[in-house]
């Protein structure tokens, strides 16, 4: 049976958040916390790998940025990137973070980097280039925050600080941007996104 | 039909409840229809329905008939947007159902997503708060509602520590506290064992007797409910009502009953007829032996069952039974080579023992799939590919002969096996469908078929018949009979005695653990995000979370601003001195803080390595040198990192997320929709961590493991992350429905638990300010102040 009748009062997809958007966004952020937690054991092994050139540790920082892009691609509402990154940061600080409460500020700034990209496209475009840009934006803001605002790497030379920011931007682009885009499409294929604006993400054009 | 007095007595002293309940609500549907946004066919169409106020109606019908859709619509949680279509009208008394807030209560089947809050009292109050009931009234309603469902537990009790049946009764209490005139139950007992089913059923009946509310319940298994409802309505897929009447009329022998049976409805007193069980060919050779086995739910966890001896022979069926928490599933996982034994042995013998390693847990995943197959309770946990056809081929394609790198099957064998299973289980038309998009019955059939595809000699199933309609049940039983006749050994963890009988299974009964109270289900990390009990009772535990955060922020400012060891050391020292205020001792503190210490050491090392060199060279590593100057810089970096990290531990140890959320919404005036939405999401954290472990085991049982190239391993890990996200989003969707059905999301609400400021809070903020100032002053006075932006 197919239905052609239009609803009496058509409601357009709005920019306002429904409860289901909020709870799924929160759970994406919380799951990200679980994923961080699952990676934690391996994390310090990677630390040793990067000791030869410490700024290169930023190449893995994208792992801490993906909630922003993934959340925005799935929820598609203004503020989703910011909210997901902030809640993920809060979860990681509640689980015990080496950055203490400052992780909240970091989460806010990283989320903002991604959020601004989605806002620049008026929350209408969620294709691959936008996802990559958003990931890079989160990485750029996160890198600048670490290197120049909180200055966690006070001992780095200016060149190393710059390298750190560049590495983090690349990491954001690949891990937060590309993987989140692929992940959203894979999730859409399972039908899990049926209640959300991204329910058709798997069949949308990749580049347009 | 009223419950008999005897049954009421069983619920223990249900009081003449003092609730002020709304009048019972009548339901009316006129030519009503609905199509979901992500579907092409409508879930319901042309429905005409009248339910009188106070009537008790059971809604039945095959899966896909739109039963849940109708319930959601009545609960006002179906939202119209561009992609949905609806027709006709659906009324509660004379009000459109979409505007019937507060008149209706809804309970769904998954107990985990019926609970919104972390504490029992808060959870019962949640709906009433959303309806802006005055707090004093809510407090009285909470007590009365818990009493009405027979839950006699403290209000502060963590909801995560409740059993499935208790969670459902808690959800019911939350509904009662809202005082609804219509109660909607969507398979409220589908995930429960037989004892839980009766427990919830009796609580529902008692509550209805007390309130007189109208009841509309969707159930697959009608036995428990049939004699307690006035009317049964059977829905037709894609259409309206196929038949209706009193239970006596519909379920009496006759054409209607036959039609219901044919569509898979579990009518009372019906067990699918499978024909006689082929006479057993006599026990075959022993395949697997367990001796003096002790099992634990996690690697390195405490044993839940001990001293188990079991001998599994080819062609033999075993049914593992026992109370919840007795370790049935854990035994199944251990026998399946997915968990290591705590003590004793699990060893393959005879045919199964080819290769030198006898212990299934030591086998590679690829060696396991062709020998022992495990079917998990939740089919989605075991889906690892994008299509049904790939899913079926995955096991045999990855299976390796024991102790070798040789494939177990040729491509021709795999193709033949996949084609046979697809037609045998009627999955052929779905070959290219994504496994996650199948119906419940199709998913169950597929998950069994994927494990059978690699031709394991032992098949282990965990509650394979939970939530299945009678047709799927029958097919499953017939398929397993064929496997038995072909010499496969079968171990089924099940409460379903009919199913065990259908397989001619021998019983293996697990002992009920001595301290078992039914209140401590499988939860390994109950309070990852909950404040420690000792912390909550401490001085800082009584302080408003916002005051603690403000104090830590004030103390952190100089640390962020300056890279020097003096201010950092002062903050670390004061934090350590403040440990008793948080109820912490040094060992308990270190148990939480050691990763932070480690991180600080890494930071210090990194800085010492690359820091600007000055003073004597201590170590020369070629491009990098470590000097006195760089060591000093490293020490300052490490101490600063530690000082930034540890004050938060005090906050973490003494702050309950619920209190934090209350403070953020009431005092900091953040939008409560977002704050409480995030809080509800966080409550799922413990569940998701468990789910991660389950996914790992479920995927190993499919042959996904730590083998193959780095790329293959990465893919396996990413697949597991995807699996976790799918489960997380599904649960979140259901949780959102629960919250919305409880009236959540409007602009105003009341709060049972007021967030207040007191004198202590002032003292704590003052202490934070003092510490920040003192740290700055000390660093400046000693000449170490070193502005990072300089």
Automatic annotation (TrEMBL), chain A:
The chain crosses the membrane at residues 20-39, 45-66, 78-95, 101-123, 130-149, 161-182. The lineage of its organism: Bacteria, Bacillati, Actinomycetota, Actinomycetes, Micrococcales. Keywords: Membrane, Transmembrane, Transmembrane helix. InterPro entries: ABC_thiamin-permease_prd. This is Thiamine transporter permease. The gene is thiV. It comes from the Bacteria. Pfam families: ABC_cobalt.
UniProtKB/TrEMBL annotation, chain B:
Its main location: membrane. The chain crosses the membrane at residues 570-590, 596-619, 631-654, 762-785. Pfam families: ABC_tran, CbiQ. CDD domains: ABC_cobalt_CbiO_domain1, EcfT. Residues 27-263, 288-537 form the ABC transporter domain. It is found in: Membrane. This is Thiamine ABC transporter ATP-binding protein. The lineage of its organism: Bacteria, Bacillati, Actinomycetota, Actinomycetes, Micrococcales. The gene is thiW.
